[in-house]
Amino acid sequence: MILVTTEGISGKDLEMLGMVKGSTIQTVNAFRDIGAGLKTLVGGELKNYNEMMNNARALATKRMVEEADAMGADAVVCVRYASASIMQSAAEVMAYGTAVKFR
Fold first, then answer.
1. pTM value > 0.85
2. What is the pLDDT of residues 75-91, one digit of tens each?
3. N or C terminus: fewer CB in 10 A for the chain?
4. The domain spanning residue 44 has which CATH number?
5. Which range of residues forms the domain containing residue 45?
């Protein structure tokens, strides 16, 4: 499956199939959250949260690709990511785009 952020794919004539999306809500465990809270006192990178968000993006992308596959798509164009805080230390990540088939 080809994933691009552009509206088209160079050299390809595209048939639009429709919007596809994938999402997940992720959180870190309570002990890691406490450690991250303490880290805010001294500053620095919150590696557990980076890992959580990377995993969430990967899962959301996988679910978007599965939805595109089910539609018979060859690619997804205009891929975008959005995130939102659901509650303290929990975030939703959504991947979305337009499923297309090559003509």
1. no
2. 999 999 999 988 877 88
3. C
4. 3.30.110.70
5. 2-102
